[in-house]
Amino acid sequence: MNWIYLIIAGLFEVVWAIAMKFSHGFTQPSATIVTIVGMIISFLLLAHATKTLPIGIAYPVWTGIGAVGTVIAGIILFGDKLSLVTWLFVILLLVSIVGIKMTS
User: Using an 8 Å Cβ cutoff, are 20 and 74 in contact?
Assistant: First the structure.
C-alpha cells in the first residue's frame, strides 16, 4: 500500500509543478492554491510512504515520477520539445525508477 501512496505522491508532484507554471510566478490565485495544495498532498503522501519504505528508495522514486511526469506534461500542455539525447535520458530515468522498484 505504501508504494501506491508513493506513486500518488509522485503524481501530485507533477500536479504542483504544472500548476506552478500556470501560476505565472504566483500571480494567479487559483493556480497558486493548486500548487500549494498539490505540494502539501505530495509531501504528506511521501511522508506516509516513508513510514515503511526506506528513504533512499522512496525519495528517488518520488522525484523520478515527478520528473518524468512533468516532462510528459510539459510536452502535452506546453508543446515542449526534447532532443533525442534528452529523450534518452528521460527513458533512462524511467528505467531507473522501475529498476529501483523491482530491486527493493
Answer: no
